[in-house]
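so ive been stuck on this for like two days lol. basically i have the seq below and the ligand is copper (II) ion, smiles is in there too. i just want the complex predicted, nothing fancy, no docking runs or whatever. if the output looks off dont worry ill sanity check it later, just need somthing to start from for the group meeting slides
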Amino acid sequence: MRAINMKKATSKTQMLLAIMLAALLLAPAAFAAVPGITGPNLNLTAQAEYLTQPDGSAIYSWGYGCNGAPSGFAPAAVSGAFCKNMQVPGPTLIVTEGQTVVVTLTNNLPSAAGNTSILFPGFNVSTSCKDATPVGQQGLLTCEAVPGGSVSYTFTATTPGTRSYYSGTQGDLQMEMGLYGAIVVLPSHIPATCSSGLPLTNAGNNAKAKAQWGETDFRLAAAAYDHPSTCYDREYMFQFSEMDPRIHREAEQQSSRTCTGCMSVATEPYVPAYFMINGRSMPDDMDPNYAPQYPHQPYNGNPHLHPGELVLLRIVGQGRWQHPFHEHGNHVRVLARDGNLILSTPDTADPNLAGPLLFTTTTTPGQTIDGIYYWSGKGLNWDPYGHNPASTDPLAKLTCTPDANGYNTGSPTAVNYFEWCQDHNKPVETAPFGDVAGGGPVTLPDPNILVNGTWFGGSPYLGPDATVRAVGSTGTTPPSGTIGNSPTEEAAFAFMWHSHNEREITTNNIFPGGMFMMMLVDSREFVIDESN
Ligand SMILES: [Cu+2]
C-alpha cells in the first residue's frame, strides 16, 4: 500500500488512523493459508524487481520466481494464485515425503551480481555440477549458476516438515537482497485420527461444524508429520526477514555495470529499516494473498481461527537477525525444529512429543519451527460469549455442556462450539448496559475514536448478535450508534501477533508497521474464507 502521504499527517494519532483505515479499505477479508507451488519438478529463476513498502518506497531487490508456469498451485481452495518471475519470499515449494525433487535454477540476476545458487539444508542434494556432463560452476557451498546460466539440484524429500531454502552464494548480500523461501514436505502417511477430525473429545465434531457452516478446508494435509499429535485444523506460514535499504540502493546503483561478478556492496554496518512477515510490512501483510498491488510479494500474514481449532504455525527465520515473534492469546507448543520432530522417546513404537511450550517463538536465521497454537478462552473467568441467564435475548441463553476436557463440543452446530463451560453465564457486565435504568454504569467506547475502531464490533463478546448481547435488549447498538465493523459479519477477538522488539514493529521508524499482524478469533459460525 503506497497511497498514504505520511508527511501530511500532523500527529501520530492521525497517522495511525490513516494507516488503519487505508488497510481496512483495501482488505475487508483477507485470510492466509499456506499458499505455494507444487512439485516435484520446480523451475525457478533468480532476478531483480522492486518490492513495495507501506511508506511509499519501492526497494530494488532480488528474489526467486517461477521460470514459466509452475506445474500447480496449492492449496486448491486459494484463488487467484500467480507466480511471477520474481517474488519475496520465493515460491513456497510444496512436495510430498518420498518424492524426488528436481529444482532447476536459472540465473537472471544482473551479470554484475555474478553467480547464484540455492541451498536446501536438511536434504542430501546432488547437483548438476557433479553430472557426467557438468552444468554450472562449483562454488564454496554448492553448485552455482553463472549469469544467464542454469543449474539443477536433485534430492529426495526424505522427511516431512517445514524447511527454508536460500542462496548459497555470497549469502550476506544475496539473502539480504531477498533470495530465500520455504519448503513444505507433506507426510506420505497421515495418522487415521487426524483424518477423522479434531478435537480428540467428540472427535470429528469440528469437521462436522466446518461442513455445517459451509467452511472450506484450506489445509495442505491433515497432519504435519506422521504422528497423531501433529494433526491440525488450519495452518499458516510466517517468514521473518529484514532489509537495510542502503545495501539495496548500492546494489541497484551497481546493477548496470557490464562486468561480470564485479559488484561490491558492503553489508556492514547493518541498519535495517524494514521488518517483514512474508515479504510485507504491516499493514500490507493484512491484504490478501496474491493481491494485485504486490506482484512480487504474493503472500500475506493474516491468521484467523475458531476457538479450539489446532492451528499449525510454520515459522521460518529468513534474513540475518533473530526476531522475537510473539503470538498473543496463548503459548505455542513446538512440534519440530528444522523438520525434526522433538520426541521424548524417539526409539519406541509410540514416541511422545517433547517440544517446549513457548511464549515467544523466536525466529532464527535459517531455522524453522513447526508449532501448534489454539485459543479457547479458558481461564478468562468471564464468558466470552456474554451468556447471561437474566437476559431477554435468546442468543444470550445458549447452553454449555462440558466434554471430558470441559469444553462445549457436543453439538457441531452450536455458535458457542468449544466454549469453556466453567465460565459459562458469567458476562463481563452483570447488568448489561441497556438493561440498567439511566443508561447503565459503563459507556462502551465509540468505535470512531478508537485506533482499531473498524475492527471493533461494538461489543466485548464473540459471535453474531454480540453487540445486542453486550448492550442488552433495550440498548442502542452501540451507544454511539456507529458500527465500524458490522458484528453480524465478523465479531472477532483481535490479538496482535508481532515481533517483541519494538523497533521491528515500525516501517522506516513509523509505528505501526513492520513485523506486525492481527490474529482474529471468530466464533464457530463465522465462515473463515482463506481463499485469497
Ligand atoms: Cu506481544
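The longest strand covers residues 41-52. Residues 52 and 324 are 24 Å apart (CA to CA).
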